[in-house]
Amino acid sequence: MAYAYTRQLQYPVKNYTVNGLKFGVHGIYDGVDWGEHLGEDIICPVDTPVVSIGRGHIVYAALHPGSNVKGNWGNVVIIAYKHPVSRMLFYAVYGHLGAVVKTKGARVDMGEMIGRVGGSNTTENGWWPVEHVHFGIYVGMWDGKVFPGYYDVKQKRTVREDWVCPHEFINTYGDHRIKKQKI
Ligand SMILES: [Zn+2]
Q1: What is the pLDDT of residues 124-174, one digit of tens each?
Q2: Which of 50, 73, 121, 176 is the most exposed place for a label (fewest CB within 10 A)?
Q3: Domains (ranges, CATH) in the chain?
Q4: For the residues of the chain, what is the DSSP string, one character each?
Q5: Is the pLDDT of residue 53 over 80?
């Protein structure tokens, strides 16, 4: 018997293409290895609308300003979701947003705009030269703190296995019948 789930997810931006740093690839900046990239970078122009991938609620929204010395999240939003069939709880991370139009605690529908892509080398985009959105999917237990964007084995800020490839997760969302997807 086929599983006909009506609930699906959509991509956070139109024309979703991983034209920036891919998931699991090491980010190396000025010769320093920040570790494995825990999301996908989608390069798109400033003010591109960023939407919620499903129906969920915003559990974190804050500005983590970067500087010309070191990049950071800029505006970052974390949304909690639950799969309607498996009841799997998971989180999506949207980083480097300019204008954020939602606040912590807000309920959002699939496709509802949460913000726009930030401009290059601004506080809001975390001081990155290339305008992009960082999009990550976390399937582990969340401790309420902002997620890192990279997995550094030395820092132990997060568990690598709790992160999954974002576009694969969205593309196979209807197949999720287990609590946690391992990669
Ligand atoms: Zn990124």
Answers
A1: 999 999 999 999 999 999 999 999 999 998 888 899 999 999 999 999 997
A2: 121
A3: 26-175 (2.70.70.10)
A4: -----------SSTT----SSPTTPEEEETTEEEEEE-SEEEE--TT-EEE-SSSEEEEEEEEE---SSS---EEEEEEEEE-TTT--EEEEEEEEEEEE---TT-EE-TT-EEEEEPPTTSTTTTS-SS-EEEEEEE-S---SSPPPSEE-TTT-SS-GGGEE-HHHHHHTGGG--SS----
A5: yes
Tell me, in angstroms, the distance from the centre of ligand 1 to residue 169's CA.
Answer: 17
Distance from residue 148's CA to the centre of ligand 1 (Å): 10
**What phi and psi values does residue 29 have, to the nearest 5 degrees?**
-125, 125
| 113 CA → ligand 1 middle, Å | 20
Determine the distance separating the centroid of ligand 1 and the alpha carbon of 3, expressed in angstroms.
Answer: 33
Backbone angles phi, psi at 5, to 5 degrees: -75, 130
